[in-house]
Amino acid sequence: MLEELLLLAHVIGATVLFGTGAGIAFFMTMAHRTRDPVLIAHVAATVVIADTIFTATAAIFQPVTGYLLARLIGWPLTEGWISLSLLLYVFTGLFWLPVVWIQIRLVRLRLPCLFRGRRHSVADADQAIDHTILASARGLAPKAPPWLC
């Protein structure tokens, strides 16, 4: 019974991770295609909430349920496919965490501009993304570029 519950939780976690990832990518792409910076900023803010509620929660519980399942079944964590899946999970997470951080920073950078009533092109938003990524890579706390607001 415990094994079935853990397996169910593990499958639901994988489904949530895949589903929210695909859904977030879809809605961000559709918002970006409108070329409306206000809509893009709104969708980005919603994406941060969805990432926090769904993706982060599933990302935490997925390895926990996987570990408990492996222990319960008697599989060592050094089993080839388990080791590989753990490695891929960590590798993917290393890419996901900076993306979430960039999403949060971009929302924070854009909201004051939106409340001032200024509208910007998608090219401006793309430059802001580049600015944020470069500042982050240099270890600087990015600020809104003067031309953005």
Number of strands: 0
Give the integer mean of the pLDDT values.
78
Please state the CA-atom Rg, rounded to the nearest Å. Answer: 19 Å
- Name the shape in a single word: elongated
Outline the low-pLDDT stretches.
none
Distance between the termini: 57 Å
What is the chain-wise order of helices and strands?
A: HHHH
Fraction of residues in H or I helices = over 70%
Largest sheet: none
Protein described:
The protein is mainly alpha-helical and 149 residues long. It is built from four helices and no strands. Helix 1 runs antiparallel to helix 2 and helix 2 runs antiparallel to helix 3. The longest helix is centred in the middle third of the chain and has 37 residues. The radius of gyration is 19 Å and the shape is elongated. The mean pLDDT is 78.
List keywords for this structure.
149 residues; mainly alpha; elongated
Structure summarized in a few sentences:
The protein has 4 helices and no strands.
Task: Compile the SSE list and pairings.
Layout: H1 2-34, H2 37-73, H3 80-115, H4 122-137
